Amino acid sequence: MTDNKRPTPDELRNTQDATFTTGEGKAPELGVKNASTEGSTYRPDWVPEEAKKDDTYACHVMKGVKEMHDGLLSSSAHLAPAVRPVQRRKKLTVADYVRGIEQGDRVILSRAITLVESNNKDHFKLAQQVLQAVLPRTGKALRIGITGVPGAGKSTFIEAFGNMLIEAGYKVAVLAVDPTSQVTKGS
What we know:
This protein has 3 domains: 1-78, no CATH class; 88-139, Up-down Bundle (Single alpha-helices involved in coiled-coils or other helix-helix interfaces); 141-187, no CATH class. It is built from 5 helices and no strands. It has helices at residues 9-13, 94-103, 106-117, 121-134, 154-167.
C-alpha cells in the first residue's frame, strides 16, 4: 500500500495490529506501515489530509484476535462454517399461558402480551383462547392515567408512586402511550 492510498477491504482484513488511544500517548504513524508495531494502521477517511503524521486518533483499523490467553480460541474461531440451528422457544399451550399469568411469571406474561398484540393470523386463535381463559380473573386492577407536558415530572412521579405501592404489597405495571407519535400512531 502506498502512503496516500485508501486501503482495500483485503488490506484491512490483513491488518495485524492497531492502537486505540485517548490522546495521551502517540498513535503509530497512520497511512503507512509502522515499523514500531507488528502490522499496519491506516488513516481513517474522516482525518483531514493536512493532519500531522504524529497526531493521535481515537481509532485505527485492527484485525481480530485469533487466540486468547492460555491458547483458547477466540469466541468466533471455534464456530463451524455451517450455520448453527436456532434454538426455538417451547410453544406454550393455553393452560401454560394461564398458569404463568396467574403465578406472575414475567417471561410468560411478556410472551402472552406479545401473542395478544401479534398481527400474525396464526396467533389470533390462541390469543383469543388465552384472553377468554383469563377474563374471569380480571376486573380487580386499578388503572391510573397520568398526562403532562414534557418535563412536568411524570416519570419521577410514576417511579415514586409505583415504589410506594410495591412496598405496600401491590403489583404495579406501567404502560406508556404516546398518542402523538408519528411512528407508532399512538402506541
